[in-house]
Amino acid sequence: MTVRRPSRKQIHLAAHFPGVNSTTVWADPRSKSQIAFSSFEHLARTAERGRFDFFFLAEGLRLREHKGRIHDLDVVGRPESLTVLNALAAVTERIGLAATVNATFNEPYELARRLATLDHLSAGRAAWNVVTSSDAFTGENFRRGGYLDRADRYSRAAEFVDVARELWDSWTPDGLSRPFAHRGQHFDIAGEFTVPRSPQGHPVVIQAGDSGEGREFAARTADVIFTRHGTLEDGRAFYADVKGRLAKYGRSEDDLKIMPGVGVVLGDTAAEAEERAAEIRRQQVSPQNAVLALEQIWGTDLSSYDPDGPFPDFDPVPDSSLTQGRTRRGDTVAMAEKWRALSREKGLSIRQTVIETSGRQSFIGTPEAVAAELETFVRQDAADGFILVPHLTPGGLDEFVDRVVPLLQERGAFRTEYRGTTLRSHLGLPDPAGKG
Amino acid sequence: MTSSHGRGLHLAAAVDQRSAYDADSYVELARLAESGGLDFVTLDDTFARPGPDALAVLSRVAPATGRIGLVPTVTVTHTEPFQVQAAVATLDWVSRGRAGWRLDVSTTEGEARLFGRRHAAPADALWAEVGEVAEVAAQLWDSWEDDAEIRDTATGRFVDRDRLHHVDFQGSEFSVKGPSIVPRPPQGHPVRVVDATEGQARRTAARYADVALVRAASSAQAGSVRAELRASAEKFGRDPDTLRVLASLVVDLGDGEHAAEPGHGGGGPRQTAHGPLYRGGPVDLAELIAGWHGDRTVDGFHLTPVEPRRDLERLVNGTVALLQHRGLFRTFYPGSTLREHLGLARPANRYAVTGGAS
């Protein structure tokens, strides 16, 4: 080990490809193709140049719809994750390759096989971000159709991950395969898994979610939890809660890495960084997107409203299905009241209010200040690392890698070289015991 | 110089290997095939026997090659049509227009038990379902018009939703709403390949395949299947010249330049459980290819080497070199997409309004 201060807790870094969401600024002249392979290659290679742990792709199963029509304001359309990651394995050498794949509309045998294949073809760099789906809207593209209620979604996902691991464990490290048979609440399958044990044994399992069920699922099952939390205090509370759940599953605190998704905006001075961040927020929340955000809360057509004007004075329509394919928002009446109150209090227009309330966790400042703050979060146990969500495709990570990573390395807080070849080794995760 | 279609000779090879899970060996074989200017390589797949996911392997191969077409087998019996078409479209994106897809079925109860969703079904019923999957895939590939992404900053619109389409497909075993999540791939439709040797598979191939593979032991036999496929395609309303028929042979080029008994004593390929097997030297194989192609009974050949490294090397440096020397096979890729190699046009989009604005 050649780390300067090996006792210091090391930061883990990952890169998210800026996909289908309102944080991606596609109108910027530097924004290139969201679908060409060269875009994925650029971002993955930049992340690898920065010695990141992994490169992370989201997934899409149905284009969102709003007012019964396909949503057209954000980036729309993306490739199938595992196919892109296999191709990226050809143009990268060390960085982990993480695919988001839904456990509601896939089957364990096929997915376990595809993930094991990625692990073989990338020589041990595969990861799976397990997500679930709630709605019949998404189901309309699939054989199984329909939907699962919330509890069933998680129990299917948990059983899905268990089955995948059974399949991966059905080959011993010395190359012997044994038949498997699994009969549970959601799956009744048997046979022989046809891919030998892959370099990591088990591809790394990532899970997102802040709910109680999500936290418990992650504590039992995941190697990495992808989360959001706003402040150092919230982060510390989340961290303590999730790490505290590990012991009852016989796991140590190091076995689960907590990585919030964050944005970073840099400037030569603090003021310049703030100015750039404000401009980015204005680009993310266009006038059309501001009205859309309002309609998603109010559940009704508000296209006649001026985004630079005041809020509607009536309450949202409960249980509206105006928007489909996006997470439901809970108590919309309370949320509307919160927005109106904020608008009144600060004298903000609709768009200004949306900008104020819809930002995600960001680190804004000079490279030195951002490096120090990232390290503070990790040293104070608010996170084990970060998943960076750039706002530009594909160059959105260039500046961070060129300006912040060297500072983290100088501080001894981040690796200067990969020490191992597998994603598990980057993350410092134990090898799964081969149940030979 | 668009001579009559089909006079171009099309050559393809399988890069199947027993129990290989590393990327390098597949890259090496695909590059070898590419050095011979072959139209495409295939990689077979099933859920039932050892082997990596074929589409994943050829995705891994894509950035490591430049021109050769990449045709994985993707079975459709237990998979999700929506996901399969998205993965194939993505292979087309990462290979910049070189994707194909060999459609196949899973007929055994053993395969069904791996999924636990449905029981095994007769091959004819499953091949009819292949037709539905091929149809919905094509619809989904068209569900984005080519110019749907507009990035219109004035109106804030990233796409023109009037150029995105629900497909509302209702099949016998599944339905798909659409549109696809993947924008229309570079080739419009990646190339669909079907083994048309038997039964309902032949009808499905006539209707939906761009390339039909025929396991035939003689030129005459291949010719009669080709004639039937072309006639059948025409009945389905297709121009038969949009269908390429390739003879599938297993080849063993382990002997010398000329085998002591070429083609088993001059008799051509011998029928085996794995399909017609041709054993001989690279020069003998060139003779056979030139002969069948000269008979106009096939548009080309799909060759499966019994010893991948050895036989593919002999195929490229022996057989192909000889065919090139005789002017029967091209010496370079005139185009960059698989469709261009095959002389197949990029399909028009069924949803695009023609003759209108823009």
List keywords for this structure.
heterodimer; A: 436 residues; alpha/beta; eight-stranded parallel β-barrel; three-stranded antiparallel sheet; globular; B: 358 residues; eight-stranded parallel beta barrel; 11 helices
Helix content of chain A: 25-40%
**Low-confidence parts of chain B:** 1-6
Global geometry of chain A: globular
How many angstroms separate the termini of chain B? 31 Å
Helix content of chain B: 25-40%
Helix vs. strand class of chain A? alpha/beta
Sheet-strand content of chain A, in percent, reads 5-15%
Number of helices of chain B: 11
Assembly context of the chains? heterodimer
**Largest beta sheet: strand ordering of chain B:** 1-2-3-4-9-10-11-14
Largest β-sheet summary of chain A:
8 strands, parallel, barrel
Unreliable stretches covering 5 or more consecutive residues of chain A: 1-6
Provide mean pLDDT of chain B, rounded.
93
Summarize the structure in words:
Chain A has 14 helices and 14 strands. Chain A is α/β, with parallel strands linked by helices. In chain A, the strands form three sheets. In chain A, strands 1-2-5-6-9-10-11-14 form an eight-stranded parallel β-barrel, surrounded by six helices. Chain A has a three-stranded antiparallel β-sheet with strand order 4-3-12, with no helix packed on it. A two-stranded antiparallel sheet of chain A has the order 7-8. Residues about 1-5 of chain A have low confidence and may be disordered. By secondary structure, chain B is of the alpha/beta class. Chain B has eleven helices and 14 strands. In chain B, strands 1-2-3-4-9-10-11-14 form an eight-stranded parallel β-barrel, surrounded by seven helices. In chain B, helix 5 (about 125-140) runs parallel beside helix 6. Chains A and B meet through strand 4, helix 2, helix 3, strand 8 and helix 9 of A and helix 2, helix 3, helix 4, strand 6 and strand 8 of B.
